[in-house]
Design a protein that fits this description.
By secondary structure, the chain is of the alpha/beta class. Helices cover 33% and strands 23% of the residues. It has four helices and six strands; from the N terminus they run βαββαβααββ. The protein has a four-stranded mixed sheet with strand order 3-4-6-5, with helices on one face. Strands 1-2 form a two-stranded parallel sheet. Helix 2 crosses helix 4. The protein is globular and about 45 Å long. 24% of the residues are buried.
Length: 144
């Protein structure tokens, strides 16, 4: 398995240094770019951790569309976030993080799995599932 860390240009040297420090140069590469401007590097699986919650709904959908367009048939998109339960009664941390994102960004917010599924299907993903992780985080998974 190999991995590409896709980061903004100021972050790429930090990622490269960490990769080298961990002796992972043969398996992990750092590439700089802006996922709103540049193509997302080709991959079978695209993972965005705590990325989508930074943006408003149209930007979230734009990033999902770019991931969908990059992935091959059968590819997978994974968003690791503090997914809020659909009833908005369980993940207090996710709801507080959503409030924090509304205060700190110009449109960012955390979201429910139902929201994720609606956006993913609107750009062409065939199906979605959620995988609870440790603590308040979950992996929202979309299949092309």
């Amino acid at each position: 398995m190999s991995c590409i860390s896709f980061d903004l240009p100021p972050v790429e040297p930090i990622a490269s240094e960490t990769i080298k420090k961990l002796h992972l140069e043969g398996r992990v590469k750092a590439k700089s770019g802006d996922f709103f401007v540049d193509p997302i590097p080709a991959a079978d699986i695209i993972v965005m951790g705590n990325i989508l919650h930074d943006w408003d709904e149209s930007e979230k959908i734009q990033l999902l569309q770019k991931a969908y367009d990059t992935l091959p048939e059968g590819g997978v998109f994974v968003a690791i976030e503090n997914i809020i339960d659909d009833d908005r009664t369980q993940n207090l941390f996710g709801m507080m993080m959503s409030l924090n994102m509304l205060i700190e960004t110009t449109g960012g917010f955390d979201y429910t799995f139902k929201d994720f599924g609606k956006w993913a299907k609107s750009v062409g993903f065939k199906s979605c599932e959620i995988l609870p992780l440790a603590g308040p985080a979950s992996a929202a998974i979309a299949y092309k």
